[in-house]
């Protein structure tokens, strides 16, 4: 049985840990509010530009564009968005497992956005497109633009035949679901057969010229949406993980306090027994 002093030290240590986890939960909860607002703001734009893009494709049979050409090759690039920090339960691990399971179908190269994903891939010896990027404390549009322009340039040079975006879709603080979306060539719902709410339009300039500007905007909107969703999911997962850690610490403190009281009571009882025994020996 542990001594009273050892139990007291453990209680003090766990209380210190509990203060940290409680503080981290509060910080994550405060940041999550703004992250949720950003998710709500980004979804309509992302969905609308996707619908406009789909409308052009659905009503145009003659459009040919190098970024829309479906190739027969099996070289794939995975843009994997994770967090820069841990302490978020299985959030980052779930994303990476989903990515690796899907990538076995292809000759794959990876472009990580987020330190955790980059470290995961480097440690296991996977082929990286470059050193990757940090996700940062807030989603950065300029980062997304640099990533997309690099992907377009490499795709046109046929360094790979297909590009997937992997991120965690934010549903609630308790639920984040890993998503895999093909972004090059563009995947619109079930293939290119997507129904939109728009009637057929006449485009000026032509649909071909419009796509030259629309495709990069479409790609930026999808990658940025993934970064925003993933950021909110990370905060939600961290808040939940820290809340569970705080509850576990409370339970451990309660259990150790009970042990401490029992050990202290046993020590006092033993001292009284020794005193009584000594007094009887003297009489």
In CATH, what is the homologous superfamily?
Answer: ATP synthase, F1 complex, gamma subunit
Output the CATH topology.
Pyruvate Kinase, Chain: A, domain 1
- CATH structural architecture: 3-Layer(aba) Sandwich
The general outline is elongated
Can you give the helix content as a percent range?
55-70%
| Count of spatially separate domains | 1
**Number of distinct beta strands:** 4
Sheet with the most strands: spatial strand order = 2-1-3-4
User: Total number of helical segments?
Assistant: 5
**Main β-sheet, in a few words?**
4 strands, mixed
CATH class reads Alpha Beta
- Would you tell me the overall average pLDDT? 88
Alpha carbon gap, first and last residue: 34 Å
Order of helices and strands: HEHEHHEEH
Structural class: alpha/beta
Approximately how much beta-strand content do the residues carry? 5-15%
